[in-house]
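Structure (tokenized):
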């Protein structure tokens, strides 16, 4: 809103929540938990979970983010708005692991680790303003996004060898809106 109000520069702020999907980097210390869990499971390793696994996130598939961002850049009359781009759904780290195990036909338990200080316990966005102002509804569900992401990692096994676990999972959950 500041540039719109102060300078008349048309802007829209979009806030992303826990974006995941194909081609996601695992080499970045801020990589999110989804590709790290997929990588662990495909390697046959228990994914490390820091804390008790009840931490929640509002996971958002990358296609939803791209669609909403393009619409925000092209929708007239929304300059100065701040829009949360998410599904508005809360999933725990353990729910994520259960879903990925089901998709992969596995039953790999987590490897619980002590919680990290400062880890965010709960992230849940309210995307209602984005859904009201844009012709957007976040069409790819959490489960479908996970299936597509797993399929991509299965089709690109070379991505699994470049991804050592360099940071704890459970705190590297993509905290801070964009992870």
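Design, position by position:
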């Amino acid at each position: 809103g500041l540039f719109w109000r102060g300078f008349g520069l048309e802007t829209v702020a979009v806030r992303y929540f826990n974006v995941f999907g194909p081609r996601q980097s695992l080499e970045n210390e801020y990589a999110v938990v989804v590709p790290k869990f997929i990588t662990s499971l495909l390697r046959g390793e228990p994914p490390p979970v820091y804390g008790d696994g009840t931490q929640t996130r509002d996971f958002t598939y990358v296609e939803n983010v791209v669609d909403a961002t393009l619409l925000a850049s092209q929708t007239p009359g929304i300059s100065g708005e701040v829009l949360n781009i998410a599904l508005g759904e809360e999933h725990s780290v353990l729910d994520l692991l259960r879903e990925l195990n089901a998709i992969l036909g596995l039953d790999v338990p987590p490897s619980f680790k002590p919680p990290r200080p400062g880890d965010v316990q709960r992230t849940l966005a309210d995307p209602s303003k984005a859904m009201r102002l844009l012709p957007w509804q976040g069409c790819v569900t959490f489960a479908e996004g996970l299936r597509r992401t797993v399929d991509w990692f299965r089709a690109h096994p070379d991505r699994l060898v470049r991804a050592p676990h360099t940071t704890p999972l459970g705190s590297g959950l993509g905290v801070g809106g964009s992870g």
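Reviewer-requested clarification: Helices lie at 2-7, 33-42, 62-74, 93-104, 128-133, 142-155, 158-161. The chain has one domain: 11-161.
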